[in-house]
Amino acid sequence: MDPKEIKVEAPLTRYMFSKASGKRIPISGTFELSPVCNFSCRMCYVRKTPAEIEEHDRPMMTADRWLSIAAEARNAGMLYLLLTGGEPFLWPDFWSLYEELIRMGFLISINTNGSLIDEEAVERLKEMPPTRINITMYGADDDTYEALCRTKGVFSKVDRAITNLRKAGIIVKLNGSLTPDNVCDLEKCVRYASDRGLIYQTNTYMFPPLRRDPSMIGKNERLTPAEAAYYDIKSYRLQYGDDLYYRFLENIVHGFVPPLGLDESCIDPKDGKVRCRAGKAAFWITWDGWLTPCGMMTEPKVELSEKSFAQAWEELTEVTSELTTSGICANCPDHSLCHFCAAMAMAETGSTSGIPRYLCEMVLELKKLASLELTLRNQSRQKIKSS
């Protein structure tokens, strides 16, 4: 097996999630510290400016409040903790919160754009290392970053952060969100990761940003379904080579491929299918204090200020267990290709029971492209045999 195909998540972790899901233990949490970011990515689902936060009807959570919730969540079973944003390193109290959370014994990973991780930050992380730093790599040069993230001169900062983190012995994973503004750099990003022996996980599906703008149901600045399918296939070939690529195409034709670009908490540890852990073993707390199953969903949510974490978690699991998705989707023969979930249905249609047509179109194109590629390969083989 190609080393890049090895799952980041260890077997023990998958086993623990499996047990936690069955018993409704919140083993994994995400703290969304702030929606503020020094980038202004066109497809972002959550970003707000400081002025927008001032006008918001709910304040940002304080470090003391985060620590209080962390202690309660630990008592309820939380071990794994993801810190995200916005850009978490931009949050004023990041370091004091992070260091205290480390002392509390959590296994912490951090989602970041990487641009603010300077030499001083690397040294602090080296002293109290996270389990992993997840850096979203938006391109391979300053021009692409400017086109997508609307910020100038940051690629060199991200590159330096990646280099210094690796020198410090900190595990780095690269994520790639592919959109019309940066897909031109796909080959260069794959090569960048390969040259450094890093995992580069691409994602062509961009959630409609309902949390940023409720009117954006089914819309985002993203690839068309046909383009998303094409670049899923192209990305796989670039990263894994022809042998695994053609096996991947055969799996598409046979009706099953692993989820592409989804977060690890979306995937069932038993068989790799999407049976979401959200609201069963995982949760997300927004910057303004809502407990939710998943950061991509606007509902359900539970107010944390009015009850303990344990009470809020119990309420959330009950509500989440009652969510229904489309029976048409659940019984669709292509379900194991699109891997739709309640969050996707809500983002695309406004309801968890809606049919996310974007994904339907993407899967149809995926199957068509896979069949065409396999036909061309077979024709080429026949020509070689007959010559």
Rg: 21 Å
Overall pLDDT score: 90
Question: Considering DSSP H and I runs of 4 or more, what fraction of the residues is helical?
Answer: 40-55%
Number of helices: 14
Q: List unreliable stretches of 5+ residues.
A: 1-8, 267-274
Order of helices and strands: HEHHEHEHEHHEHEHEEEHHHHH
Please identify the structural class as seen in this structure.
Answer: alpha/beta
Largest sheet: 9 strands, mixed
Tell me the number of strands. Answer: 9
Rounded to the nearest angstrom, the distance between the terminal CA atoms is 33 Å
Structure description:
- The protein has 387 residues and is α/β, with parallel strands linked by helices.
- It is 44% helix and 10% strand.
- It contains 14 helices and nine strands.
- Strands 6-5-4-3-2-1-7-8-9 form a nine-stranded mixed sheet.
- α3 (63-76) runs parallel beside α4 (94-103).
- It is globular and about 75 Å long.
- The two termini are 33 Å apart.
